[in-house]
Amino acid sequence: MTATAARPGSTGAGGRAERLARPVLLAFLLVAAADLAGLLAGAEAVHLVAKPLLMPLLAGYAALRGAPRLLVAALLFGWGGDVFLLADNDLAFLVGMGSFAVGHVCYLTLFGRGEGRGRAPAPLVTGAGYAVVLVVFLVLIWPDLSADLRIPLTGYSLLLTAMAWRAGVFGPYAAAGGALFLLSDALIATGIAEWPQAPAPDFWVMLTYIAAQALLTLGVLTKHRTKHKPGV
Asked: Which end of the chain is more exposed for a tag (fewer CB within 10 A), N or C?
């Protein structure tokens, strides 16, 4: 067998998937740029069209790169959350938060499997730091939340914080993605609590969210492909 034939994905369906992944990634980046530009320009119609396209494109790219199914599932549950959060009512918000929560369970399961395959466990010091941040944030925001949102948001925040902490199992890219996901959702929560907001708050929410999902995807793909290289 030749060296070329021995490389996984160099020919056949794997090679075609790799080639198709590039334009899908480019489409994701273009849609992300359009969404962010639309938010800065106040073009709500652009955001309504672009936001639901983001996670399917990123999930498609991940799948074409041979990502674990749990990563693809996490991104698609993120898409469900994106769609429901476009509606401006409490029920849609709760359903969207639930969809994101299932996505975080997918991430946590994936990170747990990674930790069991020889990767270093998530540092306890980092976990303690995240726990302190979570407690302080909840104490500060609790009085400004409506009664029906306090318990769901607290449960979701615990799950999200655990995901952000465990993301470090897949390296610095995933760790940064987890932290940015936490920041993005904290910005949403402060908006719900009617805290003072920075100019163009939706722009900052989407910028941190898009970067978070992209970095989580990059981190998982990087570690996954390294593990599956010949001889590794």
From this structure: N
DSSP assignments along 117-145, one per residue: TTPPPPPHHHHHHHHHHHHHHHHHHGGGS
Dig out the tokens for 102 from the structure.
């299932």
Q: What share of the chain is helix, strand, coil (3-state, %, to 5)?
A: 80, 0, 20
Between the alpha carbon of residue 29 and those of residues 36, 91, 146, the distances in Å are 11, 31, 36
What does the alpha-carbon distance between residue 69 and residue 155 come to, in Å, rounded to a whole number?
A: 25
- One digit per residue, the tens of pLDDT, for the chain of length 232 reads 334 444 444 456 667 878 899 999 999 999 999 999 999 999 999 999 999 999 999 999 999 999 999 999 999 999 999 999 999 888 899 999 999 999 999 999 999 987 555 566 677 888 999 999 999 999 999 999 999 999 999 999 999 999 999 999 999 999 999 999 999 999 999 999 999 999 999 999 999 999 999 999 999 999 866 555 533 3
